[in-house]
Specification:
Four Helix Bundle (Hemerythrin (Met), subunit A); mainly alpha; single chain
C-alpha cells in the first residue's frame, strides 16, 4: 500500500475513533486531514505541485476549482466551515462521510 493510501486510511480510522468517543472536534480535524492527503495526491497526479501542506489551504484551493463538480466544491466548502460558539457546524453535514466521498472522487483507486 502506498504511503498516501496508508495515511488516508489511518485518518479515517482516527475519525471513527473520535466519533465513538464523541469527540466531534477531533473527528472534524481527522476528516480535514484526510481530505488534505487526497488533495495533495490529486494535485500531484494533475502535474501540479501542491502549493501548501495545510489541509485547510488545499480545501480552499479545491473549492475554487471550476473544473470540479459543484458537489465536490460544496464538500470542500463544508470541510472549511468554522464551528459556532456552541461548537456546532452552521450546516447539517457529516464531514467524515463528505471527506470520504471527496477522497473517492479525487482518487478512484483509493478503495476506501
Amino acid at each position: 500500500m502506498s504511503d498516501w493510501k496508508k495515511d488516508l486510511t489511518m485518518e479515517f480510522e482516527r475519525a471513527a475513533q473520535a466519533r465513538i468517543q464523541k469527540n466531534e472536534g477531533q473527528m472534524r480535524v481527522c476528516a480535514r486531514r484526510a481530505a488534505g492527503i487526497a488533495i495533495r495526491e490529486y494535485l500531484i497526479r494533475q502535474g501540479q505541485r501542491p502549493p501548501s501542506m495545510s489541509a485547510y489551504d488545499l480545501l480552499n484551493l479545491l473549492k475554487e476549482d471550476p473544473t470540479l463538480s459543484s458537489n465536490l466544491r460544496l464538500m470542500a466548502d463544508h470541510l472549511t466551515l468554522r464551528v459556532t460558539e456552541e461548537f456546532k457546524l452552521p450546516v447539517e453535514a457529516d464531514l467524515v462521510a463528505e471527506a470520504r466521498a471527496l477522497c473517492r472522487s479525487l482518487l478512484p483507486d483509493w478503495g476506501g
